[in-house]
UniProtKB/TrEMBL annotation:
The lineage of its organism: Bacteria, Bacillati, Actinomycetota, Actinomycetes, Micromonosporales. The keyword Transferase applies. This is Ketosynthase family 3 (KS3) domain-containing protein. The keyword Zinc does not apply. Residues 10-403 form the Ketosynthase family 3 (KS3) domain. Keywords: Transferase.
Length: 409
């Protein structure tokens, strides 16, 4: 097994801003309000003809929010490119940083699954395949609108490690900050709802017909979604020197690959256990220091049980680990999922609120080793959040976030 961790003894990394585009609309406030209001955003897909599909649900960015992008970012054939740019602009604004500035080294670290491939999906119809003239075959075109709206003076990195993409982008940006390669890192996960993804999960019989129910005994599958999540990272001392208070801190990141199966994690959850231990070791914390585990929790019969057992094993302490998944509300936004979950985790740290398993009705006894948060959520001190993401092929990427007081100290 190969494991990669952020190194120790380097600059502490602060989260200075966050941005989001999601099924709740534009902005992090819309995302957080949907979380606390317990809104379930899954519903019939309108962008594609789903009449011949047995499961026809998805999570789309609302049409009004898509129209509103015109006043925020330049036009582009790819919705994902526009989601990314809009979330990055919000993140920089939240951090108190201008979109353009030559007196800094700003790098962009972007994770995705499909990049611009959904452009090709729009050409699929009864008359044959009408392939767009350009765009879909060049994944880095996803960054076009970002480059037009944000002055990137450092490295630009596009990552595609499956649905672990958002956490992988955060880890890459964290390493760049910690090593002094950049002063500011815009770390993003982005996805546009794709007909290919819907077709693939249909062929795997992994789609729920109506609702995603992570960790529920009657869970039947996942539902694809879309959006973009952004974390703006800086060295803690740089944020403080600008007269601002960090929102939170990236305490540690770890990645592993068990290469067990193309579509399923190892039955013992070895990759996840490895990354959890890696994060705790790097941060100098114990299992009992983790206040919330923001689970991958896709609602599929196989994955949730494996994840629950692995979390219980990795975080064995005086109490069962506190666990919930946001995918019951927002579906599985693939490349954007982990990044959007990280944005929610930052707010959870600030608000001392653990989001609930909103669609949970009857907990699976196989998940008895973890403390599944009730649908209403919990008001409780939240000082650290562990957030994990799986990708096809056995890849796992996990991040550990800490409260702002830790960052300022």
């Amino acid at each position: 097994m190969d494991r990669d961790r952020t190194g120790g003894g380097r600059r502490a990394v602060a989260i200075s801003g966050v941005g989001a585009v999601s099924g709740a609309g534009l902005g992090t406030e819309a995302l957080w309000t949907a979380v606390t209001d317990r809104r379930v955003l899954t519903g019939p897909v309108t962008r594609y003809d789903m009449s011949r599909y047995p499961a026809r649900c998805g999570v789309e960015v609302p049409s009004a929010a898509v129209v509103a992008l015109d006043s925020v970012v330049p036009g582009h054939e790819s919705l994902a490119a526009r989601y990314l740019a809009a979330a990055a602009l919000e993140g920089l604004r939240d951090a108190g940083l201008p979109a353009h500035g030559r007196q800094r080294r700003l790098g962009a670290f972007v994770g995705t699954v499909m990049a611009n491939r959904p452009l090709l999906d729009r050409g699929i119809g009864p008359g044959g395949l009408a392939v767009p003239g350009h765009g879909w075959a060049r994944p880095d075109d996803l960054l076009d609108t970002l480059r037009k709206t944000v002055q990137v003076t450092g490295p630009t990195v596009l990552l595609a490690p499956g649905c672990a993409a958002g956490n992988s982008a955060i880890a890459a940006g964290c390493r760049a900050i910690a090593s002094g390669e950049v002063d500011v890192a815009v770390c993003a996960g982005v996805s546009e709802l794709s007909l290919e993804i819907l077709a693939m999960f249909t062929s795997l019989r992994a789609l729920a017909v109506d609702t995603v129910r992570p960790f529920d005994v009657n869970r039947r599958g996942t539902i694809p979604g879309e959006g973009a999540g952004v974390l703006v990272l800086e060295p803690v001392d740089r944020v403080v020197a600008r007269g601002r208070r960090p929102l939170a801190q990236v305490l540690a990141c770890a990645a592993a690959a068990d290469a067990h199966n193309p579509t399923q994690p190892h039955p013992d959850g070895n990759g996840l256990v490895s990354t959890v231990h890696g994060c705790l070791d790097r941060a100098g914390l114990t299992a009992d220091d983790v206040d919330w585990v923001c689970a991958h929790g896709t609602g599929t019969p196989a994955s949730d049980g494996i994840e629950a057992r692995a979390v219980a094993k990795a975080l064995a302490g005086r109490r069962r680990p506190v666990v919930s998944s946001l995918k019951g509300q927002f579906g599985h936004a693939e490349g954007a999922a982990a990044a959007l979950e990280a944005v929610v985790a930052v707010r959870a740290l600030a608000e001392n609120f653990v989001p609930g398993n909103v669609t949970l009705i009857e907990p699976d006894p196989a998940c008895g080793g973890i403390d599944l948060v009730e649908p209403v959520g919990r008001r409780t001190p939240v000082r650290t959040v562990l957030s994990q993401a799986f990708g096809f092929g056995g890849g796992v990427s996990t991040i550990l976030l800490g409260e702002a007081e830790s960052a300022a100290g």
